[in-house]
Amino acid sequence: MTNYIIHKANTRGHADHGWLNSYHSFSFANYYDAERMHFGVLRVLNDDTVSQAMGFGKHPHDNMEIISIPLEGDLEHQDSMGNKTVIKEGDIQAMSAGTGITHSEYNKNKDKPVKFLQIWLFPNKKNVTPRYDQITLNPEERKNKLQQILSPNPDDAGVWIHQDAWFHLGKFDNNIATEYQIKKKGNGVYVFIINGDVIINDEPLNKRDGFGVWDVDSLKIISQSDDTEILVMEVPMGM
């Protein structure tokens, strides 16, 4: 029997701080749901919009793999490792917090909001030396197919993290079918629908829905709109 969960967009936690409008797929800050603490090692999936010239001041993290995926606008990042960068749509950022880091994130733009996904994964190694990774992707490589953006292997496509996880982005025209093969036995997959409509393993899903499945070897994905965009996150189910 297939095991799966569906998190409809309107069931997510929500916090509107004025300068920050954030939706939480899993328990975070003041949003707590005992049924939605994590999906395997996937601990946080926040869908954030930050107002013009606003942002998160310096704050600490440790023993967490943190991935940021900008969707619109420019996000300025500074950290205690000496990095000062801007990430924008098409970039992927990964940090291994390890023994501890502090960082800040600000909307670089004074005329428009910045939208990005922030994702936290529990690592498979604790107290590693903190590290920072950032790449710019070619969006053509995800046109009507899945483009790998993250893996456990520094020599593989995308950024790498301390976890047996693989992330892919795909942007599809209407009625395009594709299949995702699980890379490591025992892993599950959580798919976040960034935009559009899609059917995954016969389940209809819409913009900002989440679909988690485990104990399968593959996923069958069929886009249902011309602007379908999805993030596929394969992660270990065991902590």
CATH topology of the largest domain: Jelly Rolls
Percent of sequence in beta strands: over 45%
Structural class: mainly beta
Low-confidence stretches: none
Shape annotation: globular
Query: Compute the gyration radius: what is it?
Result: 17 Å
Features:
239 residues, mainly beta, Jelly Rolls, 2 domains, 7-stranded mixed beta sheet, 7-stranded antiparallel beta sheet, 22 strands
Describe the secondary-structure layout:
Elements: E1 3-7, E2 13-16, E3 20-24, E4 42-50, E5 55-61, E6 65-72, E7 74-79, E8 84-88, E9 91-96, E10 101-107, E11 114-121, E12 131-136, E13 146-151, E14 159-160, E15 166-172, E16 177-181, E17 187-195, E18 198-200, E19 203-205, E20 210-214, E21 218-223, E22 228-236
Parallel strand pairs: 13-14
Antiparallel strand pairs: 1-20, 2-3, 3-4, 4-11, 5-10, 6-9, 6-11, 7-8, 7-10, 9-12, 13-15, 15-22, 16-21, 17-20, 17-22, 18-19, 18-21
Structure commentary:
By secondary structure, the chain is mostly beta strands. The chain has two domains: 13-136, Jelly Rolls (Sandwich); 139-236, Jelly Rolls (Sandwich), CATH 2.60.120. The protein is built from no helices and 22 strands. Strand 18 and strand 19 (203-205) form a beta hairpin.
Summary of the model, kept short:
The chain has 239 residues and is mainly beta. Helix content is 0%, strand content 55%. 35% of the residues are buried.
